[in-house]
Target: palmitoyl-protein hydrolase
Amino acid sequence: MSRLGALHLTKNTGAKHTATVIFFHGSGAAGDHMKEWVHLLTKNFTFPHIKILYPTAPLQPYTPAGGLMSNVWFDRIDIDPRAPEALDSLKKIEMDVKSLIKSENDAGIPNTRIIVGGFSMGGALALHTAYRWEPTLAGVFAFSSFLNDNSIVYQDLQKSTNNVPLLQIHGDIDDLVDLSWGQSTFKELQALGVQGEFHIMDRLGHSLNKKGLNIIKDWVERLLPEVH
Model:
């Protein structure tokens, strides 16, 4: 049974959707917050043929918040790339994410027509999803995100090739996830064969912005064109 909260869905405007984008929120947020935030920044983050899912992370104790309950995808020892990953926690969310993607497969959407992405912790989850659990996805994007220095993602990529294209976006004054953390994540993934692009947003802190969302939108439309 999936532990993910209610899926806040953005309906496509066409008669039938032929692709899906799964947008994971940051720590302590929720799917409906993510959806509202995206639509506050840009009214046109919609696609005639693509369904957008905004799932909510399970409520669980979160170590950086002193063990308080929070809607987080996985636990962290610390918000620092030098910290070891909480692998048991990642293993639990792996089952939930795979179940979510399978439900899209069962509805007729193959992995090659699914993109995963997210903000902050949600972007890190998307990277684990595309480069460990579901290596046949159409693409992955990460906004203000990073992976730990010795991430299991890197270890898995050393064992097999992965062709999922990557889009990373990061603000240059991010005071929670330093720009250098995102850049080193991108360089490490590139060194392991990942093809992608990295965009720096001027004067942007730990936040989404309209320019970045429009870059994501154009990129999604390139990777998931309408099919007839």
